[in-house]
Amino acid sequence: MRNLSRKALCLAAVAASATLGVAATGTPAFAAAQNVSVYTTEGHKGGMGNFAGDASRSSSKERWNACDHRKDGYWTVTTLKWGTNHKYSVTDKGENDGVCKLRDDVNVPEETKVTITVCLQKGTHGALKYCKSGTGRA
Questions:
Q1: Which SS3 state, helix, strand or coil, does residue 20 take?
Q2: b/e per residue, 74-106, with b = 16+ CB within 10 A?
Q3: Checking CA distances to 24, which of 74, 99, 122, 135 falls within 20 to 30 Å?
Q4: In terms of C-beta density within 10 A (0-12 exposed, 13-18 middle, 19 or more buried), how is residue 64 classed?
Q5: φ, ψ at 40 (rounded to 5°)
Q6: d(CA 94, CA 121)
């Protein structure tokens, strides 16, 4: 009986180590998306941009927005960029009306590093000011 107990323990240890070995060497199906929020730099946090990458391979679109937090005549512009040829923007002209302008119509390849930049802009042709960037992952 004593030998049987040792044998059972030995088999259990082998089975456990084999399971751990498979778990340690297996690759995950996907890396989790990395979300990011960024505020403009003018000191009032008048503009904010958020990026939310999708968290599964079954979802195809990323979401990002521009939120204007002050009635100061500036618009908030959030730009999403990855690689050298992919750049998309969204603008909130709301002047702190409580509604952010959302975009969710672009598919970024999974696990791709993205940069969002949020700026303030006076009117359509005004210079981008008080910009700040952050990085995330789709």
A1: helix
A2: bbbbbbbebeeeeeeebbbebeeeeebbebeeb
A3: 135
A4: buried
A5: -70, 165
A6: 12
- Report the helix count and the strand count for the chain, using DSSP H and E: 1, 8
- How is residue 63 written in tokens? 């979401």
pTM of the model: 0.74
Nearest CA among 94, 31, 96, 33 for reference residue 63: 33
Q: Which of 42, 59, 47, 48 is nearest to 106 (CA)?
A: 59
Separation CA 66–CA 32 (nearest Å):
23
- The tokens of 30 are what? 């996907």
